[in-house]
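User: Predict the full complex structure for these chains.
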Amino acid sequence: MRVALFVTCLNDAVFPKTAVATVRLLERLGVQVDFPSGQTCCGQPLFTTGYRARAAPLVRRTVRAFEGYEYVVTPSGSCAAMVRTHYGRFGPEAAELGPRTYELTEFLVDVLGVTDVGAYFPYKVTYHPSCHGLRLLGLGDRPRRLLGAVKGLELVELPGAEECCGFGGTFAVKNPDVSAAMDADKVRSAVSTGGDVLCGADSSCLMHLGGMLRRLSAPLRELHLAEILAGTEEDPWREESGR
Amino acid sequence: MSGVFVGMPAFPEAARTAVADATLRSNLRHATHTIRDKRARAVAELADWVELREAGRRIKEQTLRHLDRHLLRLEESVTGAGGTVHWAADAEEANRIVADLVRATGETEVVKVKSMATQEIGLNEALAAEGIRAYETDLAELIVQLGDDRPSHILVPAIHRNRGEIRDVFRSEMGKWGRPAPDGLTDAPAELAEAARLHLREKFLRAKVGISGANFMVAETGTLVVVESEGNGRMCLTLPETLISVVGIEKVVPSWRDLEVFLQTLPRSSTAERMNPYTSMWTGTSDDDGPSAFHLVLLDAGRTDVLADETGRQALRCIRCSACLNVCPVYERAGGHAYGSVYPGPIGAILTPQLRGTASGIDASLPYASSLCGACYEVCPVAIDIPEVLVHLRERIVERGGPGHRRERATMKAAGWVLDHPSLLAAGERLATRTRALHPRNPPGARAWTESRDLPELPAEPFRDWWRKNRT
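Assistant: Here is the predicted structure of the two-chain assembly.
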């Protein structure tokens, strides 16, 4: 099976480890991964801030980049939701990309039909379901099922899991006080689990949470789900792998 | 809308004060989480919740599409049942109509049922200017009125107050308005409620004029409906000789069959009750019972403008249940006052800028007072896609272009251009990652982020470069 990796601009520029982990994970599961280099950003930050006209060229570019692919896979619930729920506003051609776009856990569980991906991660993990994956895509328990099947991993429930971390794109800087208060509450909740790792499936939320974890010197670290699933007993996840 | 909120700072500044107020944060957190959990349980009990929600959405949408016809039918029914219908284009006209009606009775005081429409138009202040004293009789509205405070929630306007604060307000202020609080009043809820009951009872028995809003107006029979849970509404709607109801034009439903849907969804969404405690319904006047004169003031005040906006008009479906406030993480932290309007929370963020326009700083900041997490849409019993309307209003603000948006527009233009040129983007990424050791931890322009959160460290190379080296 051949898929196009929709890496997202944030993973490309800031979190390549997440992108590399996604590639390795998919390849380990027998999937041939392409990276169409014409892709940049899906246009979400511009669109949700009110710049629809500025987002339009990026939408067209994204649609062109993934032309002809039956499966477009992205390690981001938020970017997948942008394509699936908002691209329809940019015309029928853009709308057509929606059904071919899969958030990583959807692709693994629904298309490949796997929940045990052969991963190994001997740590205590709590999972934050990001809003767009939760409410716009309806990911449900897919991420938890994948985590639950990881060898050595102890999954602990995050209190108030369904509450937003306060990122919200430009919201984080337009309303910094409320955003940071939400962030701090989420981090305190994660700390209360006694876990080693706060796992998520959206790098933007993880960037926000990570920024607060470090500011508060919290005793756990954030990690993208793809990085947890990419580690195996033969080649386990390491702090600086991919750097 | 009411002048009470004029001159409010924009949302981010008002929210900053609220976030720093530990008592307020704790009051709001406790109250919103309690009611949020209760609502979830009450809604989960209904096997047909999804269908009820869809029915509510459809009824409202179809009614709004032919609003003119339904309103004329309502007018005919109300008039036929002995009521008088007045049409008010704006707040000023509505206030003048009500003040004239009260003056014509010769009375100088009125009792009020909790009503968002009269708050919106600032009726109490307008009446006060005419020498007419309006007494709020809903417990929380009483607390707000006695405390010379502002409401901070649609359903529980004193949600920002705890028991101790309420006791203090009752002790110091009740005597100035009528019967004072009993000696030795404590903060026990039963004692506070009893103090309010005693204080209000003399007002109910004395009042000759009652003023209300309405949750629904049934066009086919001209029946108005008030849904409340304290019994104060029942008193105000039945004891006075004259009843004046000020109702937004979007509150009409065609038939009793339609009403039935909302009488199921509203109580569960708002107070998490299976059935509403006091549901008062009246049709015009009757000879031997209740008020002998009934006036209905139909209020537009910007609503027909909202109706003209294809995306924004869904805000008019709102039945004022407050479920969106109670689940909103932004409301929970910013509190209701930060929204600078009688309509706080997510629904306020889409309703206020549409009713008032976006000329002022506070109104233009409201569409951005959301992380677009979608919790509000999920709980809305009439399926208002609040995030969709928020983004739509952001577009409107960007198009109209305020001075505060000049720098943002330039940034977005530049970002859009770079992102549409992959080779330029790749070069930029490469440059940024190679010079990462030189980057300051608190770069100018990033203060809004770095004041409270660390920036991520950039990687040694972008993904594009890894791919080129390892997979091509």
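Chain A touches chain B through 67 residues (CB under 8 Å).
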